[in-house]
Amino acid sequence: MGKIGKGTGSFGKRHNKSHTMCRRCGRRSYHIQKATCGACGYPSARKRNYNWSTKAIGRRTTGTGRMRYLKTLPRRFKNGFREGAREHHIFSSFTGGFAV
């Protein structure tokens, strides 16, 4: 029954939210009174990240999302960024002159 201290009994009295959804990162880390996000640092112009937490940086870096633009770059670079034409195929004697 005890509600003194920080233990189990005092958890029932907690019903106020100090953090809400962040507009930039979408996490529930935006502190309402401080008006800053604990995860991304919003409204700061620079995104919050620290080298003491390498795993956290890796969770939200390039390659964790769809990469709509970047994932096609290697193929387009290989073809000289030509569009609309047929892709350049390699002919070899191994395949008897047929495209690979």
UniProtKB/TrEMBL annotation:
Record carries keyword NADP: no
A GO CC annotation given for this chain: cytosolic large ribosomal subunit
Record-level Gene Ontology MF annotations: rRNA binding; structural constituent of ribosome; zinc ion binding
PROSITE patterns for the chain: RIBOSOMAL_L37E
Example of a GO biological process term: translation
Keywords associated with the record: Metal-binding, Ribonucleoprotein, Ribosomal protein, RNA-binding, rRNA-binding, Zinc, Zinc-finger
Family statement: Belongs to the eukaryotic ribosomal protein eL37 family.
Function: Component of the large ribosomal subunit. The ribosome is a large ribonucleoprotein complex responsible for the synthesis of proteins in the cell.
UniProt xrefs under PANTHER family: 60S RIBOSOMAL PROTEIN L37, RIBOSOMAL PROTEIN L37
Protein name: Ribosomal protein L37
Originating species: Micromonas pusilla (strain CCMP1545)
Lineage: Eukaryota, Viridiplantae, Chlorophyta, Mamiellophyceae, Mamiellales
